[in-house]
Design brief:
7 helices, globular, Rossmann fold, two-stranded antiparallel sheet, alpha/beta, 9 strands
């Protein structure tokens, strides 16, 4: 008889930081990459934000894979459809651990805000972390990505108190034209009024786009 089993193990997770944390740091950003991206490369898209006084954290997904075929460039992923519940539990625990061990103490010391951003697959990851995990942040930005579809956001009052932004691209090849409205409505159905913005472009992110959409 075939029986599936699970056993918890200790993993070594990788994350990157960008900027200099000091008394002058104005805020903290936690940025979650998309599928088949590496955190070390992804975080460099926020270099200008770091130069302006923000301190950036970029955790990396626990699963790595070759981007094409069985050799060459490597990327990371937060989860797949296989044994997804275990993967979700693992990354929620991982992000909570990083948050409470390192990020929140820094923010409390300097009395500064903690903002989060999830790009592409990182958007669904962010929505699950902020509902199923214990971290509380000031701002959550969902960029060119879908919220987790299997959650009832009305059941998470702490998430509803977060300042939420949904950013979409006018020519995103991964989503249909009605995607922005369906995502906005998903939150409105839960009693959440997100701030939304559609920029002229494709499946991309950068500080200049962030300034137009958020600041």
């Amino acid at each position: 008889m075939l029986t599936e089993h699970h056993i918890p193990v200790t993993r070594t997770a990788r994350y990157f930081t960008l900027g200099e944390f000091s008394d002058n740091t104005k805020d903290i950003w936690i940025v979650l990459h998309g599928h088949r991206q590496l955190a070390g490369k992804f975080i460099m898209q926020f270099e200008e934000l770091a130069k302006e006084g923000s301190f950036i954290y970029a955790p990396e997904g626990l699963m790595r894979l070759y981007v094409k075929g069985d050799h060459g460039d490597v990327g990371a992923s937060w989860m797949t459809k296989e044994d997804r519940e275990s993967d979700i539990k693992d990354y929620v625990n991982y992000l909570d651990r990083l948050f409470f061990d390192e990020i929140e103490p820094k923010a409390k010391l300097n009395k500064i805000n903690i903002n989060t951003l999830g790009f592409s697959q990182g958007a669904a990851t962010l929505s699950r972390w902020l509902t199923l995990g214990r971290a509380r942040v000031n701002k959550a930005v969902f960029w060119c990505g879908s919220l987790a579809h299997d959650l009832n956001y009305a059941d998470y009052p702490e998430f509803r108190q977060t300042e939420i932004h949904q950013i979409f691209a006018s020519n995103d090849p991964y989503y249909k034209s009605d995607f922005p409205e369906s995502q906005i409505q998903l939150l409105k159905n839960a009693g959440i009024q997100p701030k939304s913005y559609i920029f002229d472009g494709g499946h991309e992110i950068g500080v200049e786009l962030m300034k137009k959409a958020l600041f």
